[in-house]
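User: Can you predict the 3D structure for this chain?
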Amino acid sequence: MEIINSINDFLSTYILVALLLGAGIYFTIRLKGMQFTMIGEMFRLLVNSGHKHDDAADLNKPTEKRISSFQAFVVSLAARVGTGNIAGVAIAIVLGGPGAIFWMWVVALLGSANAFVESTLAQLFKVRGDHSYIGGPAYYIMKGIGKRWYANLFAILITITFSLAFSSVQSNTMAIALKSSFGVDPVIFGAICSLLTLLIICGGIQRIAKFNEIIVPIMALMYIGLAIYVVITRITMFPHVMALIFENAFGFNQALGGTLGMAVIQGVKRGLFSNEAGEGSTPNAAATAAVSHPVKQGLIQTLGVFTDTLFVCSATAFIILCSGVFDSGLTGIELTQRALENEVGSAAVIFVALAVIMFAFSSILANYFFGEANLRFINPSVKIRNLLRVCVAAVVMIGAIVSLDVVWAIADITMALMALCNIIAIIILGRYSFLCLKDYRRQLKEGKDPVYRKSVIPEIADKTECWPD
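Assistant: Here is the predicted structure, written as structure tokens:
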């Protein structure tokens, strides 16, 4: 464990953070701050994203099995919004102080540029699957860079990390929450959760999307609404909380040396690993959407980063800081539960447990899809896909009843390696997203609903099979 933790700390604290933040700054400059200037367009697209007839490449084909832009958005949001938004933010505040929240916001604003680039590339290089589109880093690495071994490496890493390791961790978190709040036997829960997982994932991305389309927005809105209630009831505390965040963020009036460094490290790490911008996971969901221009889904996925960090993570932060219990000695989900119990009453403990269950279960479904899309890239065999489904159901069962310290630590390493593979790829291929955005803006100025055509980037026309000539 000491060796594993040392490797993990080195990869995540130094190499990965530097690369992801550096890429965020670079893309923000090259894209001329589109994550700020095009927020109105993002919301406009999200409002209209429930339609499935937006695909200019296949207008004459049936639409009932296509994935809408909104469904792709909530599948990726399901992977982003999980137990880390409730427990992880609490840990960041305990270890890094209230200032960690400010740096978490900074990372979201910069990292959203990474999210735009990787999701636009996923759309640009997507391919047709059985009933929907498929794509992601493995596909744009293969088609854009032309290195099969590189693409296979990414596909293997994301399958191990998300479909297997992270699914077992999510299951473990749900089992703990149910046992502590309702006294449910972990073995019984594991069996039920495993069966439900199998029933949904065997229906493919359509069934996963439909489930997450309902659950994720409802739970996220309820959780954010609860945070707003806490802020309103403690409105006199709010100016003090904001002052506390900014003072700690820049090291003003600090009592202990090194506090500023911990605030930066914890805020950056929590922001990066919560919103997953640049890691290479959410492009797998972004690629499935039927849209008329790659930039449309890139903009919507950029909004997903803001939703995860600026809304859901901030909701947890405000609940904890407004309640005044962040220095109580508790950490993780227990700290969030205590804060809500102080503000709302004992029923809040049950609500947090239910929120964790819904967020974690939706994450398991999204994580499975990431593995399926990448296994299909390596080997399209249906038998391989069915084997993955059985393995996911098994790790969900195992995760509910065993301690997962080693599994979680190894998953952190594979996730860091996966993110390194992706960030290098999007830096190499980023110029294609710049050209796509330039074409999108030109068509908007002309009063058109933007439609991408292969002629926009002739050098990769033969590699972008899902777009019209």
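The chain has 18 helices and two strands. Residues 69 and 289 are 5 Å apart (CA to CA).
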